[in-house]
């Protein structure tokens, strides 16, 4: 097995300044007025924040007042000191976690690792194994049962400049599954809320985007426990391991948290372009291959899951570039939970997109309401009430006094509150793969590169 060291890369500023007219309108109307208008507000607010900040971090009260209840953004997660609810949850899970030692490092350096050819741990990184050896664990979702169907998914969001891409999906009436990184959600909360408002499915993509098999079991738990509920008011029941790096130990922890492991079948490899490891034409070729296989009947009996990213301008542009051809080649282009006929994709009783039949015949349930209103399920409370600061399984987080901290209402974003420079320094500087980046408006997200020759 040959392993390359991780290569952090920068995310370029993209599609900024496209919404100055909307932003100007927002200022004229006043953001508080916009916030009072209900379900459509999240899109406008997200755009206003993007235009105003130029993709810079912004101060957002409901998140910033709760930072002490979460791990440091972009740092590998650990159970917070004194978080008795997290400890209790971990205690309830750990007995079912197999005694498999961590593999390599959290940055994906597996050099020197001795791993059996028998693949006893069902390590996807090694063998693309998706059927756990450990009894009681469900198989990973790597295919979907519906023929002529492509499950449409995007990793690594929310992206501070994704509004143009999300606008495009809205214009097409297209929903997708978004695998969100917790640290990105905390950095770009309004953008995350927009995804919920637009009706996309949300799944977990860990807190800090590390190689999960390289972490201790306790830290794997923390990477999955500290969820995006605070911002999105939903608790997903699905997750995708960064780099697909999962084995039975990690699966058991995710399963204990009620998270189904989701992988993919077709990787566009779009994420590898910026590091120079893959050319743009190679990504085009990957999309073309998928289209050709569809045209040649490869999906006559079973569907596929496409892995793409909302990581940067190129990856989102590629998605737009190939969208119409994918939609015309595949009979159905649907979110993953829809493809699986899962009509209860969240812990909460939130409206779903319906089952496969409902979605593809246009009889889906209604799109979830704006997470800032919390009005769709009959709940009158703000999503930022203490009861919403929950981990998976609706365990309240009491650490750092979050239970006693009342955060009232849907507060306006930082554009009128407080300059980004006044945010706590811990959330402005991020250590990613040994590189510290911070505070410059747009910044790095590290992804290690794994070249495994098995
Ligand atoms: Zn990822």
TrEMBL record:
Its cofactor is Co(2+). It comes from the Eukaryota. It is found in: Cell membrane. The keyword Transmembrane helix applies. Residues 395-407 have a biased composition (Polar residues). Residues 374-388 have a biased composition (Low complexity). It is an enzyme of class 3 (hydrolase). Residues 347-360 have a biased composition (Basic and acidic residues). Keywords: Carbohydrate metabolism, Cell membrane, Cell wall biogenesis/degradation, Chitin degradation, Cobalt, Glycoprotein, GPI-anchor, Lipoprotein, Membrane, Polysaccharide degradation, Transmembrane, Transmembrane helix. One of its GO terms (molecular function) is chitin deacetylase activity. Residues 148-339 form the NodB homology domain. The chain crosses the membrane at residues 432-453. It catalyses: [(1->4)-N-acetyl-beta-D-glucosaminyl](n) + n H2O = chitosan + n acetate. GO terms for biological process: cell wall organization; chitin catabolic process; fungal-type cell wall biogenesis; polysaccharide catabolic process. Its main location: membrane. It is a lipid-anchor; GPI-anchor. GO terms for cellular component: plasma membrane; side of membrane. Residues 347-428 are annotated as: Disordered. Its EC number is 3.5.1.41. This is chitin deacetylase. It comes from Ephemerocybe angulata. The lineage of its organism: Eukaryota, Fungi, Dikarya, Basidiomycota, Agaricomycotina.
């Amino acid at each position: 097995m040959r392993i390359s060291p991780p290569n952090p890369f920068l995310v370029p500023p993209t599609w900024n300044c496209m919404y100055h007219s909307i932003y100007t309108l927002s200022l004229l109307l006043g953001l508080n007025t916009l916030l009072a208008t209900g379900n459509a507000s999240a899109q406008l607010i997200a755009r206003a924040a993007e235009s105003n900040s130029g993709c810079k971090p912004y101060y957002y009260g409901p998140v910033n007042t709760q930072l002490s209840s979460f791990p440091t953004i972009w740092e590998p997660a650990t159970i917070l000191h004194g978080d008795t609810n997290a400890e209790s949850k971990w205690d309830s899970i750990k007995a079912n976690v197999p005694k498999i030692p961590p593999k390599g490092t959290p940055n994906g350096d597996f050099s020197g690792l001795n791993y059996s050819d028998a693949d006893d741990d069902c390590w996807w990184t090694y063998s693309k194994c998706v059927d756990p050896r450990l009894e009681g664990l469900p198989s990973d979702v790597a295919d979907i049962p519906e023929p002529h169907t492509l499950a449409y998914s995007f990793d690594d969001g929310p992206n501070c400049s994704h509004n143009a891409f999300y606008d495009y999906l809205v214009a097409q009436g297209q929903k997708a599954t978004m695998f969100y990184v917790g640290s990105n959600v905390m950095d770009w909360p309004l953008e995350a809320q927009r995804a919920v408002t637009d009706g996309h499915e949300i799944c977990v993509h860990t807190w800090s985007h590390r190689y999960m098999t390289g972490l201790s079991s306790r830290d794997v738990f923390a990477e999955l426990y500290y969820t995006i509920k605070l911002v999105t008011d939903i608790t997903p029941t699905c997750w995708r391991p960064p780099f697909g790096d999962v084995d039975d130990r990690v699966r058991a922890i995710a399963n204990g948290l009620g998270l189904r492991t989701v992988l993919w079948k077709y990787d566009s490899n779009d994420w590898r372009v910026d590091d120079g490891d893959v050319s743009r034409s190679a990504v085009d070729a990957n999309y073309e291959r998928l289209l050709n296989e569809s045209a040649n009947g490869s999906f006559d009996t079973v569907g596929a899951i496409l892995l793409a990213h909302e990581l940067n301008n190129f990856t989102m542009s590629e998605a737009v570039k190939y969208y119409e051809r994918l939609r015309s080649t595949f009979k159905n282009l649907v979110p993953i939970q829809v493809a699986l006929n899962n009509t209860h994709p969240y812990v909460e009783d939130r409206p779903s997109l319906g089952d496969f039949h409902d979605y593809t015949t246009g009889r889906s349930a209604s799109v979830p309401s704006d997470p800032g209103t919390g009005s769709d399920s009959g709940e009158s409370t703000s999503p930022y009430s203490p009861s919403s600061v929950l981990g998976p399984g609706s365990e309240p987080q009491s650490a750092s006094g979050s239970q006693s901290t009342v955060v009232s209402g849907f507060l306006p974003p930082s554009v009128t509150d407080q300059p980004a420079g006044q945010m706590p320094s811990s959330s402005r500087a991020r250590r990613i793969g040994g590189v510290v980046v911070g505070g410059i408006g747009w910044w790095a997200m590290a992804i290690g590169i794994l070249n495994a020759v098995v």
